[in-house]
Amino acid sequence: MKPLLWRSLLRHLIRHPWQLVLSVLGIALGVAVVLAVDLANASARRGFALSMEQVTGRATHRIVGGPQGVPEAFYTRLRVDLGWREAAPVVTGYAALADQPGQLVQVLGVDAFAEAPFRSHLDGVSTAGGTLTALLTEPDAALLPSNVGQPATLQAGDRRLTLRAVGQLDAAILAGLIITDIGTAQALFGKQGWLSHIDLLIPPGATGAQAINDLEKWLPPDLKLEPAAARNQATADLSAAFSLNLTAMSLLALLVGMFLIYNTMTFAVVQRRALLGRLRALGVSRREIFTVVLSEALLLGLAGTLLGGLLGLWLGSTLVHLVTRTINDLYYVVSVRDFSIAPLSLIKGAGLGLLATLAAAWLPALEAADAPPAATLSRAYLESRWRAALPRLNLAGLTLLGLSGLLFKLSYGLAAGFLGLFLMLLACALLTPSAVILLVRLNQQLTAWSGPLARMATRDVARHLSRTGVAVAALMIAFSATVGVGVMVDSFRSGVSLWINDLVNADIYIAPLAQESGASGASLRPDVLVELRATPGIAALSLYRRVEVTLNGKPVQLLALELAPAARAGYHLLAGQPRAAWQAFETGTAVIVSEPLAYRHQLRVGDAITLNTASGPRAFPIAGIFLDYGSEHGRILLNRRAYERDWRDATVGSVAVYAAPDEAVAVLRQRLETGIGRLQPLVMRSNRSIQEYTLAIFDRTFTITSVLRLLAIAVAFVGVLSALMALQLERAREFAVLRATGMTAGEIGRLVSLQTGFMGFAAGLLAIPVGLLLAAVLIFVINRRAFGWTLPFQVDPWIIIQAPALAVLAALLAGLYPIWRMTRSNPAQALRSE
Amino acid sequence: MRRYLSGSPAPLRQGMLWTALALLVLAGLTYCALHPASVPLPAATPVGSALGGIANAGFQRAYEPRPFVFPEDHGAHPDFRNEWWYVTGNLMDDQGRRFGYQLTLFRIALSLNAPPPDSAWRSNQLFMGHFAVTDVAGKRHYGFERFSRAALGLAGAQAVPFRVWLEDWSLTGTASDALPLRLQARQDEVAIDLNLRAVKPLVLQGDRGLSQKSAEPGNASYYYSYTRLPTAGTLNLGGRRFNLTGYSWLDREWSTSALGPEQSGWDWFALQLDDGRDLMFYRLRRQGGGMDTHSSGVLVATDGSVRRLGHTDVEIKVLDTWISPYSSDRYPSRWAMRLPGENLDLIITPRLPDQEMRLQVRYWEGAVTVEGKAGGKPVNGQGYLEMTRYEALASP
């Protein structure tokens, strides 16, 4: 019996190759998207970990200092006075390769004699050629990675240095890392007298705890001891939200894929109900039917997963560049950009593909096995069961909807947010069959005048709810995902655009050229400032200095500001009374913090934050919270005088110039270029170019999201195509009857087009509210929880039109092949063939 | 490692390669210090050729006796390639428990030219330190090494006030002289803090301080010693504290090149006899075996008066050997030394057989006891002995 049973079911698939191909394709697309995103994420994470390892090595702790770092004299005290042995000084920074603009490399300046316990990647250094002597005594000696040609000319700020290779770091993981003597790195970055940090090796246990205790007592107030992992972790955390977002996108694609698979499997079973009924009548047991249907699903799943795996590998290798580019734009320079195939990702992709297929096939298989043999032969029985189940589906849908609402209301975490999101989508899918019936009824009224064909087409949809309901739900989910993500990105962009336009309201922005090539700490020379203040035609100046400080162990940006009155308008206070807040800010006793910072650290106006200043920890009350997309980890605004007082740092990073009312900006700019421009290499930018630059960065960041959205659209498109095509192909006999009773081929073509068109339209239409709901959740729940941003909810009508338009287009395309086949076939033969 | 070793480095552990790299260079420098750079020694060929470029050219060399000026000459002589402050001693606590110690700070010039002053880290001077303690009763020998550039106050040498240091290993004198000297060093579970004072005047070795090491002019060093320094202080060893007294010995030497290609290694004796006399003798060994004619020494009388010893004045015989279980090197472990002209017959025995310095460059340096006869009367003593290049293949 068994082989016969198998053959009878497989024969069906073989006789319907289109259906076979389309179901495999549906699964493959779902798997490919998930796998690709996961692989890209894993590669980026690995790149990150390796980049970190290059610098951190085996260090367990590090001593960090203020904005400039750790005074080098402290290292001498640590070694000579305190006799601390396992300590290594590090001067590190990013520099641009002069012949490859935009390509940043990390320079790691070390003391060879302190390195051995810390970084093993120097194992690759050759002993031949007096490398060490050269490193120590020649100011242009370096160990260069194999991917950097030599000599390598580096541009760090306005300093240019040509390095000569005295040894090569040829291990693949060291791409983008240059090792020099610590003195060379200091000279390159202009950090004479300072270290980036001091690495320490402190054993775990009581000895280590004692050592930490002793050291902390001994540390000056402006230096801090922290676990080495803490900083890496903090940096990793930043990207965690980003990669979680990507994962969510891929899961969304999987969800869509699952619906498509579910649709495929349901259809495959429903279509063969008569056959299954006959088999049952012949004595095949329920168990056997169930097993064979699931096995078939497994086979399809396997084929789809394999295909999807290959597709995913190819897609992933493309995506990894987008992902690392985004990470580089947003967070830090990942020097490792290799695409690596993580076995875990493969397992995840395969597991998801197979499990999703099985899960999707489970209900149809159960249903097929459960139906009484006689009933399975009757189509009416199935449809009536579906109709009877509608109230239950609705109830379940509404319950899930309520549950997801509760989850959004009560939970705080990102994972719970995603759970709510998926529950909500599931709820909408469950409510779809009822919505389809509602649409059919509505359409009946509208099409009353348009003749029997249109009425017939739409009523057919309602009549075959067992097939059409699932198909429309699947398509609806697919398109709602594209609508939701589209609206979210669009809203985000318009929020950022408004924000940057308000924020950047001065006429000319001036920064040292050095900042262009990675030396973010570069500052304006004092004589530039003096000259600037003396330049005529300037109404007001804002001075900026940006440094990184640590808040509750996380790095955040501190902006030391002297603001022109007009500049204040650029900061929209979301909380705090503006007048009082700015007054408190001007006294230097209070700070204004960005929204993400307040959100992440659960801070309100009136709370205080403690910052580690050069003269020890100091608490600053929060006077206001401002809208900011500039940094997802948060920014703190502090009055410049207070910063100079507490951090003993009088440098100015950049300046905003407000032209006098009667001064032409172009003329002023010319004057500045010839004036202060000769004192120091500077970049001068108009507000416009900064705004454009910001949006360009934004668009780059969201390229990956747009790509994923396009993928989701592709999946949905293929879904519509396959679902509806299968649906119509299956009706060959029905059409033959209609032909036999006198309908022309053209009329049937119109019937099919109307029907698929209606279903596509229904799916597209329903996708709009669901998509908007999804967008709302993404904007108000997911993004807020991931980044702490408040985004405006902005809907681009084009995105709204796009969904139904694409759905209808796909649906009409889906009808073409069945129509073509049907018009070519002989009705009599079609009747006989069943 | 009294005088530079031309020994090949021990097999290097992975992960130590960076230090090893440093050491290979040092070994190379050592090699160059002792041999004309143009003649490679098989064991040191890769490094020797690598360092050929920065050989002796431009560095000052010791051609003839010079006037010594103190306290200035206690400080560094950066125009010479190598220099060391070499302290060894035999100490004892009130219970008679014996210890030996060694603290050597080496200065090495990497190049003649001062690097650009664009960073305080830049320096062409390197310091290497060796620190060892022998616990005779505990039958343990502790040996440590460290390196640092002479920059940023991490390491350095200055004459006034006298201070030579490598991190927290240091020799500190007074404002006007190197002596009395405070010696401090610690690492891991070992820490010493000693005060050394002089009872005998400073001894100029060789010809008025010029110590010729091989035939080529300039293959010599400037060399002076304090042969007997009463010492008192403390030793902390694994949490136990010992109050110690005894005698130390300070050697000072600077040079650019020393050994010739025909010389293979050396044995260096620094002995303090209980009749008040001190004996220094270095035996330079020849490639084919036997004593090199440049082997030399001094006998310092109780009043500080000096008698120079040439290679014919001293007869040395190896009575026994010891094979290091760690390196398989075979070192002499018992010596007979005769000075016929002085009627002095000595048997020299290490206090512990294993005082091998298993550092990046391997050698044996340790405390020894001396027994024998002086003019027919029994004489005892103590001292320090250094033996280099006893690789399993090389014959002593």
Question: What secondary-structure arrangement, pairings included, does this model have?
Answer:
The complex is a heterodimer of chains A (834) and B (396).
Chain A: H1 2-15, H2 17-56, E1 61-64, E2 70-71, H3 72-81, E3 87-97, E4 100-110, H4 112-115, H5 131-137, E5 141-145, E6 152-156, E7 159-169, E8 177-181, H6 182-189, E9 194-195, E10 197-200, H7 206-218, E11 224-227, H8 228-271, H9 273-281, H10 286-330, H11 343-370, H12 373-377, H13 379-410, H14 414-446, H15 452-463, H16 465-503, E12 508-512, H17 526-534, E13 538-551, E14 554-562, H18 565-568, E15 573-575, H19 578-587, E16 591-594, H20 595-600, E17 608-613, E18 616-626, E19 635-639, H21 640-647, E20 654-659, H22 665-675, E21 682-686, H23 687-701, H24 703-729, H25 732-740, H26 745-787, H27 797-824, H28 827-833
Parallel strand pairs in A: 4-8, 5-7, 14-19, 16-18
Antiparallel strand pairs in A: 1-10, 1-11, 2-9, 3-4, 3-6, 3-10, 5-8, 6-7, 12-20, 12-21, 13-14, 13-20, 15-18, 16-19, 17-18
Helix pairs in contact in A: 1-10, 2-8, 2-10, 2-11, 2-24, 8-11, 8-16, 8-24, 8-26, 10-11, 13-14, 14-15, 14-16, 14-26, 15-26, 16-23, 16-24, 16-26, 16-27, 24-27, 25-28, 26-27
Chain B: H1 17-34, H2 45-51, E1 82-92, E2 98-109, E3 125-135, E4 140-149, E5 155-158, E6 163-166, E7 169-172, E8 181-187, E9 190-196, E10 203-204, E11 210-212, E12 220-237, E13 240-257, E14 263-273, E15 278-286, E16 296-300, E17 306-309, E18 315-323, E19 330-339, E20 344-350, E21 356-358, E22 362-374, E23 377-387
Antiparallel strand pairs in B: 1-2, 1-13, 2-3, 3-4, 5-6, 6-7, 7-8, 8-9, 9-12, 10-12, 11-12, 12-13, 14-15, 14-23, 15-16, 16-17, 18-19, 19-20, 20-22, 21-22, 22-23
Helix pairs in contact in B: 1-2
Report what the structure shows.
The complex is a heterodimer of chains A (834) and B (396). Among the domains of chain A are: 70-195, no CATH class; 378-504 and 688-834, no CATH class; 525-679, no CATH class. In chain A, 62% of the residues lie in helices and 16% in strands. Chain A is built from 28 helices and 21 strands. In chain A, the strands form three sheets. In chain A, strands 12, 13, 14, 15, 16, 17, 18, 19, 20 and 21 form a ten-stranded mixed beta sheet that branches. In chain A, a hairpin with a 2-residue loop joins strand 17 and strand 18 (616-626). With 396 residues, chain B is mainly beta. Chain B has a single domain, classed as AttH-like fold (Beta Barrel), CATH 2.40.370. In chain B, strands 1, 2, 3, 4, 5, 6, 7, 8, 9, 10, 11, 12 and 13 form a 13-stranded antiparallel beta sheet that branches. In chain B, strands 14, 15, 16, 17, 18, 19, 20, 21, 22 and 23 form a ten-stranded antiparallel beta sheet that branches. Chain B starts with 16 loop residues before the first helix and ends in a 9-residue tail after the last strand. Chains A and B meet through helix 3, helix 4, helix 5 and helix 6 of A and helix 1, helix 2 and strand 4 of B.
